[in-house]
């Protein structure tokens, strides 16, 4: 990600091996002003982002370009930034702390 970019997206995969559905209710990223879960939907040949209040995960869910993704706004970025602390918030499980690696888009 170029230095100074403040709006970006986060992509990742969540695997659920608990045997019961888990509900992702939000994502937070240290240093970001605002973080939202979205899904890209095509309606009448137009792509639009739809806000997601929750994502139910049975086995696996992918947050990827063109599908579910996390929009990150107001993120302070420098060339030295290699990762951010990200929290995955669940309705029925403890919050999961992960490192979000910074990568340039390809």
Automatic annotation (TrEMBL):
InterPro entries named in the record: LpqE-like (IPR007410), Lxx211020-like (IPR058248), PCuAC_sf (IPR036182)
Pfam family, one: PCuAC
Annotated Gene3D superfamilies: PCu(A)C copper chaperone (2.60.40.1890)
Family annotation (PANTHER family): BLR7088 PROTEIN, COPPER CHAPERONE PCU(A)C
Record protein name field: Copper chaperone PCu(A)C
Organism of this sequence: Kangiella sediminilitoris
Taxonomic path: Bacteria, Pseudomonadati, Pseudomonadota, Gammaproteobacteria, Kangiellales
């Amino acid at each position: 990600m170029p230095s100074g970019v403040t709006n970006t997206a986060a992509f990742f995969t969540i695997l659920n091996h608990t045997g019961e559905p888990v509900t992702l209710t939000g994502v937070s990223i240290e240093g970001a002003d605002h973080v939202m879960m979205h899904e890209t939907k095509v309606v009448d040949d137009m792509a639009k982002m739809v806000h997601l209040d929750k994502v139910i995960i049975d086995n696996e869910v992918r947050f990827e370009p063109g599908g579910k993704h996390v929009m990150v706004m107001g993120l302070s970025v420098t060339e030295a930034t290699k990762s951010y602390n990200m929290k995955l918030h669940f309705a029925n499980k403890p919050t999961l702390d992960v490192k979000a690696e910074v990568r340039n888009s390809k």
